[in-house]
Design a protein that fits this description.
By secondary structure, the protein is of the alpha+beta class. Helices cover 20% and strands 34% of the residues. The strands form 2 sheets. The protein has a two-stranded antiparallel sheet. A two-stranded antiparallel ribbon has the order 3-4. Strand 3 and strand 4 (64-68) form a beta hairpin.
Length: 71
């Protein structure tokens, strides 16, 4: 299970995200760097998780790994 410190380092607040998207038309296409969007899942009253069909994580050796779950 990721520690709270790791989770906080890899998050932004919704206001920051909305500020970055401000002024863009609703039909604007969003690219996720090769990841396939799956859903938005609520994780509590103040937290949501954007989910993809791939898992992305770091190993204990700090190697970034992507696992594709659609194949």
């Amino acid at each position: 299970m990721p520690t709270k410190e790791i989770i906080e380092r890899h998050t932004i607040d919704l206001g920051t995200l909305l500020d970055q998207l401000e002024g863009l038309p609703r039909e604007t296409q969003v690219y996720f760097g090769g990841l396939d969007f799956y859903r938005v899942k609520r994780r509590g009253p103040d937290s949501v998780q954007i989910e993809f069909n791939q898992s992305v994580y770091r190993t204990s050796e700090d190697l970034l790994v992507v696992e594709d779950h659609e194949q």
